[in-house]
Design brief:
Length: about 350
């Protein structure tokens, strides 16, 4: 990756889901290795793709392939369990002594017991707030008045509580103990759909190494909150640069940006996206709407050749290619916060933030 960019835009837009479609050959190889020529093999692949697409906006970009691998393993395991259950219960099909839907009654009982155990892991304050909000229907403003806090802080606390409750419920349902200290942080990052935290705790690699977390990843992401404040744009060609720039402007408008601030943000996004295309070939730009302090965070990632001298790359006038452009130094000046991490042969990650600060009327 280099600081050299071109600000020109052209028509077109990237195709959403292309990165998921790229997973199909790998998924088919995994399914073939596990089920052979089973009639449901292609159904397993398609079911996996549907689930990955549903979770795509809730996981950090580097987790897409590991999550797909974990998901296809889960789908295959479910297929075998269903067949085994069907075989074991076939002789009961016409047994009048068998209570109707007895298996469903057992499952319901197990789920109630698991939820009770999960609730016991919460603190008294967390339990009271959650029950008051979910059962009694009290809003966050009234709950905040009770504890001398703000509605936003209470909402954030409830979100964390729900995320932890989902994790503890699934662990209780499986009657499982986490095998390592990494498990709970990874599971919580999945349950809360916190993409930044997923990257920090190395969730992608952990899912490939831990069978328990791999199994639980799918229900956690399936039940996790939908992120309408995050836009992920795969970058592989010039039209994708246009898509990233346009998406940045649209998200920034929601944050209140206007005029020059909009232009600066969109230009910086164009710069880093163009770098990905020119020097890495492909990557991703993730745009996140921030709150309660309003702003937009941009994370540009690639798995390209990396930068061997980051300090030089951030120096005005430095370039590894012909042509003009604002480059990384220019992008840094356009944004309020700028951070770059690069490893030769492994790729580059640029994180930059633009804050919205409404001017007081004159």
């Amino acid at each position: 990756m280099s600081e050299r960019v071109v600000a020109d835009e052209g028509p077109g837009a990237g195709a959403p889901g292309d990165d998921v479609a790229d997973l199909i050959p790998m998924l088919r190889r995994i399914v073939a290795a596990r089920v052979g020529s089973h009639p449901a093999a292609e159904d397993v692949v398609q079911e996996t793709l549907v689930r990955v697409l549903a979770a795509r906006d809730r996981i950090e970009p580097g987790m897409l392939e590991p999550y797909a691998i974990a998901t296809v393993r889960n789908v295959v395991a479910t297929l075998w369990r269903q067949q085994d259950r069907s075989a074991r219960n076939r002789h009961r099909a016409h047994d009048p002594s068998e209570p109707e839907r007895a298996e469903d009654l057992v499952v319901a009982s197990e789920e109630q017991a698991a939820m009770a155990r999960a609730i016991e892991t919460l603190t008294d304050q967390e339990r009271r707030a959650l029950l008051a909000h979910e059962v009694d229907g009290r809003d966050t403003r009234s709950l905040a008045e009770d504890v001398g806090s703000t509605a936003g802080a209470v909402a954030a606390s409830l979100k964390r509580t729900r995320a932890r409750l989902r994790v503890e419920y699934l662990l209780a349902l499986e009657d499982a103990e986490v095998p390592s200290e990494r498990c709970r942080p990874v599971l919580l990052s999945l349950s809360s759909a916190d993409r930044r935290r997923q990257a920090e705790v190395g969730a992608a690699q952990h899912l490939l190494e831990c069978p328990l977390c791999s199994r639980l990843s799918e229900p956690l992401l399936g039940r996790g909150p939908v992120r309408d404040d995050v836009v992920s744009v795969p970058i592989a060609s010039d039209p994708d640069i246009v898509t990233a720039r346009r998406s940045a402007r649209e998200l920034a408008v929601r944050a209140g940006f206007t005029g020059a601030d909009l232009t600066m943000l969109a230009t910086a996004v164009s710069e880093v996206a163009r770098n990905i295309v020119r020097f890495a070939g492909s990557g991703e730009v993730v745009l996140e709407l921030l709150a309660p302090r309003r702003g937009v965070r941009v994370v540009a990632r690639d798995a390209g050749p990396g930068i061997d001298d980051v300090t030089s790359a951030l120096t005005d006038g430095h370039s590894t290619s012909d042509g003009l452009g604002l480059g990384l130094p220019g992008s840094r000046r356009l944004m309020d916060e700028f951070d770059i991490s690069s490893e030769v042969g492994r790729g580059t990650t640029i994180t930059m933030t633009k804050w919205f600060d409404r001017k007081a009327p004159s």
